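Here is the promised in-class demo. Please do not try to memorize the tokens; focus on the logic of going from shape to residues.
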């Protein structure tokens, strides 16, 4: 006890034990004979810093992996980071700009030197921060999506898919991000509701004097790329336009009228401008009718030379300018307010442009089939299961994945172009040269004659392989580690990347290893502030996790978050949650100091302690069973709440009071040692949630060997449960609470011994505990009514405490009459239900029986109260 501080100091304890765990390599895992339990971290961006979402996600992973260790499994949590092409390149470009350097002034090799320097300086900070949280990752396995092993694996997978005919290159309509100047996949586009304008423009009909048609658009700047106007052939309003041409307003270009059922006659004016280069549906019409394609945008979102007007100006500036010019030319019919959805880049938050671009694509239709079946048939289980519907919706309508990005930071696409045209795909330069010579028939070709594709692969093209490449399952599929650790056990992630990452990992697992990548997926909610807003830097409502840890301790923060984190539901975060967590740490600490401070004597165990220890063993077993069940359903928040209530309400508030020796007296050895055993079990139950304080107290609980840790202590197992013991103790607690209530209401001193009368021949309670905790001297069964006694009910049994000369009879009569009136009203409401034939005939039998029980209880209580009133009257 001399070594244990009076107050719990998290910072001292946390640093000490994390260093201990690291020094003894307690997080390390290698294949052995035990059952494996594996989690792979969702790799955070290499240059990222810890935020509240990371705190929640990684706390859950740590809880799962620590519990698995204590269940005797060979638990492995693999850490790592993602190279995050768009985000990292944007940061490097901004850093260079601050130094007066443009990316365009650098060669690819020069830029990559800056990018690697930035990554080495800032990369991995988040992994260091996770240690403050208590993350028990095997840090010796830390991976990076662009390290050598992962990079070689990505190249091999690309070549494999290309050779299978699943990867192809072609001009397609893509989502173009003008800020990052790269194509994006459909999943990287976030659609937002906006209040826009709908511009009705006049297109003059060639050869028809003073005749024009009206076309509505939200993007008037794109008229620069119009190559047709389309109407529905069934629309009688426009049948006269067949074979006609119209003039694109302001531009002066003549374009044909085409007729296609694609146009909805009821939408807008029924006339659709066709801009094949900048709308996915227009592109399909352009293909069908062989229309010219005019790409009016530069990669940065300014108007290109092909636009012919407003060259070099930003697209949104042109939108304003072109409307003014159209008005001056009397080519605007009207302008209306219009609500529509606008696509934004998930990364750069700018409006995306549909753009025709030469890109690399992965065919998805065949690949999705086994991945869809695995989830629908519960071979992979989702928690909560509601996300299966989201998954099914996406997986039954997949488009080919645009996997190329116009970036330099990332995995360079392994394709090389030949001088005379065509290309080869290979894992290495040497292989590419060999293939190029074979393809061209020119054996004098050198690698310098070939031009490597400049694009990079989508970041997700490396992270979809994460559970496989962490165990070298691509380069060496049959190795010992991939056979032992794969499939991994649980994945913890957010539902926002169910498509980006979860679905694609499942696809990769079945395509490359023929098996699922994980058995269960636990979806966390979004961390919001206490008024429900999503946390963000812009709103300033996101606390710094490290500041929270410094204030409340890691265990306090972990507990605060988990108490309000039901799977799949959003968390309304409030600092008070962490304060509650810190208070709980103090409660545990003080309970330990209290127990360890008792003097121990080798004497007989009192009856009250025998009853208390027998009850708490049953209560502990019941909670262990409950927690086991909750963990099997991934209801971690409820599991923590169950252990919290066991410690705070049952152990501290009741059990310790039951066994506490009288002031200045020793505790018997049997009760003391049993209590230390219970405390040990409680610490082990709490350890996955609160690793630091539990390690500290567990080490003080008994002598330990060097390198020994609670994280390898076995999780407590339930014993045979006697439900009668639990029921009898609940009755006992109610009686004690009843006596204490009388004492408080009558202002009777705590030290004054009382007599308790039971107006029945028996009660399933522990008399010895009632006497000790309620300070009762005598308990009388089959007692008579006493006019000078205060009564209370527990169930249908009446108890009273004789207080002759100590109470005001009139005041007690008034209390009893109020209770009588309340019960009469309650009974009347029950009888009204039971006298309703419709209710009795149609309600479930259990509900009707419940009402009849309420009637019997109320009648019994009324009889007792009326007898008490009569005795006092």
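The designed amino acids, position by position:
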């Amino acid at each position: 006890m001399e070594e244990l501080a009076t107050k719990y100091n998290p910072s001292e304890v946390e640093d000490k034990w994390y260093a201990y765990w690291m020094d003894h390599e307690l997080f390390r895992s290698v294949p052995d004979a035990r059952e494996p339990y594996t989690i792979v971290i969702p790799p955070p961006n290499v240059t990222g810093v810890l935020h509240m979402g990371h705190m929640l996600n990684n706390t859950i992973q740590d809880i799962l992996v620590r519990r698995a260790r204590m269940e005797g499994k060979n638990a492995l949590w693999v850490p790592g980071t993602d190279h995050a092409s768009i985000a990292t390149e944007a940061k490097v470009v901004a850093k260079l700009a601050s130094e007066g350097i443009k990316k365009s002034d650098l060669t690819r090799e020069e830029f990559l030197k800056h990018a690697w320097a930035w990554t080495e300086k800032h990369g991995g900070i988040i992994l260091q921060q996770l240690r403050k949280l208590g993350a028990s990752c095997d840090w010796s396995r830390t991976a990076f999506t662009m390290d050598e092993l992962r990079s070689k694996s990505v190249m091999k997978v690309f070549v494999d898919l290309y050779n299978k005919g699943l990867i192809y290159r072609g001009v397609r309509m893509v989502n173009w991000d003008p800020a990052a100047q790269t194509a994006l996949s459909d999943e990287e586009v976030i659609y937002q509701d906006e209040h826009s304008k709908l511009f009705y423009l006049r297109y003059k009909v060639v050869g028809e004097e003073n005749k024009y048609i009206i076309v509505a658009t939200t993007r008037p700047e794109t008229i620069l790329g119009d190559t047709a106007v389309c109407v529905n052939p069934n629309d009688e309003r426009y049948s006269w336009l067949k074979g006609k041409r119209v003039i694109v307003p302001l531009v002066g270009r003549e374009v044909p009228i085409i007729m296609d059922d694609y146009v909805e006659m009821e939408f807008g004016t029924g006339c659709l401008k066709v801009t094949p280069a900048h709308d996915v549906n227009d592109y399909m019409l352009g293909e069908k009718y062989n229309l010219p394609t005019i790409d009016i945008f530069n990669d940065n979102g300014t108007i290109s030379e092909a636009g012919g007007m407003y060259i070099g100006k930003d697209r949104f500036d042109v939108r304003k300018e072109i409307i003014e010019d159209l008005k001056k030319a009397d080519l605007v019919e009207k302008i209306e307010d219009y609500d529509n959805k606008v696509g934004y880049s998930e990364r750069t938050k700018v409006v995306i442009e549909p753009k025709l671009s030469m890109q690399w694509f992965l065919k998805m239709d065949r690949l999705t089939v086994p991945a869809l079946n695995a989830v629908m048939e519960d071979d992979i289980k989702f928690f909560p299961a509601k996300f299966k519907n989201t998954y099914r919706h996406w997986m039954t309508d997949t488009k080919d994945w645009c996997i190329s990005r116009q970036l330099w930071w990332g995995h360079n696409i392994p394709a090389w172009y030949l001088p005379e045209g065509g290309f080869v795909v290979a894992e290495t330069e040497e292989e590419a040269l060999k293939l190029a010579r074979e393809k061209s028939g020119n054996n004098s070709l050198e690698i310098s004659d070939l031009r490597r594709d400049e694009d990079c692969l989508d970041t997700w093209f490396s992270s979809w392989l994460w559970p496989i490449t962490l165990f070298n399952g691509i380069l060496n599929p049959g190795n010992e580690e991939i056979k032992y650790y794969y499939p991994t056990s649980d994945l913890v992630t957010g539902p926002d990347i169910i498509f980006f990452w979860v679905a694609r990992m499942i696809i990769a697992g079945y395509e490359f290893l023929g098996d699922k990548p994980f058995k269960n997926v636990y979806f966390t909610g979004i961390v919001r502030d206490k008024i429900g807003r999503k946390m963000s830097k812009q709103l300033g409502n996101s606390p710094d996790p490290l500041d929270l840890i410094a204030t409340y301790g890691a265990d306090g923060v972990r507990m605060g978050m988990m108490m309000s984190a039901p799977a799949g539901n959003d968390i309304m975060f409030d600092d008070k949650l962490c304060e509650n967590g810190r208070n709980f740490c103090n409660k545990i600490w003080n309970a330990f100091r209290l127990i360890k401070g008792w003097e121990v004597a080798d004497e007989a165990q009192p009856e009250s302690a025998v009853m208390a220890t027998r009850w708490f063993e049953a209560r502990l077993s019941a909670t262990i069973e409950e927690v086991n069940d909750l963990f099997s359903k991934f209801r971690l928040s409820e599991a923590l709440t169950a252990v919290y209530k066991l410690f705070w309400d049952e152990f501290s508030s009741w059990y310790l009071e039951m066994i506490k020796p009288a002031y200045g007296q020793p505790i018997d050895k049997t009760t003391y040692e049993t209590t230390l055993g219970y405390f040990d079990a409680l610490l082990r139950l709490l350890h996955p949630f609160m690793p630091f304080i539990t390690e500290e107290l567990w080490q003080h609980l008994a002598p330990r060997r060097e390198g020994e840790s609670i994280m390898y202590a076995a999780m407590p197992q339930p014993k045979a449960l006697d439900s009668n013991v639990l029921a009898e103790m609940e009755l006992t607690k109610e009686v004690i609470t009843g006596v204490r209530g009388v004492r408080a209401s009558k202002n009777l001193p705590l030290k004054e011994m009382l007599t308790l009368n039971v107006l029945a021949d028996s009660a399933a309670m522990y008399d010895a505990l009632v006497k000790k905790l309620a300070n009762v001297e005598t308990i009388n069964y089959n007692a008579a009514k006493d006019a000078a006694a205060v009564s209370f009910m527990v169930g249908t049994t009446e108890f009273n405490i004789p207080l002759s000369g100590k109470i005001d009879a009139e005041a007690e009569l008034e209390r009893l009459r109020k209770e009588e009136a309340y019960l009469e009203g309650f009974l009347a409401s029950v009888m009204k239900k039971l006298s309703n034939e419709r209710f009795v005939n149609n309600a479930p039998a259990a509900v009707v029986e419940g009402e009849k029980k309420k009637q019997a209880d109320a009648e019994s209580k009324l009889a007792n109260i009326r007898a008490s009133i009569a005795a006092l009257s």
